[in-house]
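Readers of this paper often ask what the protein records in our data store actually look like. Such a record has a labelled line for the sequence and another for the backbone structure tokens. Nothing more is needed to write down the fold, since each code stands for a local backbone conformation. The record that follows is passed on verbatim for readers who wish to inspect the format.
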Amino acid sequence: MTIQEIHPQPDYTLHIVAHDGRSGVFDVTPYLEYEAFADLRHQERFAQLSNGGYFIEWECDADLSADSIEARWRVTHDPDQARTAQQEDSKVSKASMPGEVDVLT
């Protein structure tokens, strides 16, 4: 995964948009107990991050790789799944039209 956009939130989550169009939420709060992330307990420091594409980094040198984020984020939008669901809905709609035979392929 390559990170296209990242938006820090007041609840210590990151709203992330990946290069492939997926978007989701990553919760940083479990990391705040570790010394490397301690400075991020201050909201203003948490909000100051940079996007390296394959990682994100804060001024205190704490960082997270895109692989770590992808393994633990909650995907809220996946264009491939949305497209598949839309195609399935289309098949059902066509099969249910009056005068048509209900055959799904």
Q: What stands out?
A: The mean pLDDT is 87. Residues 3-94 form a domain with the NE0471 N-terminal domain-like fold (CATH 3.30.2020).
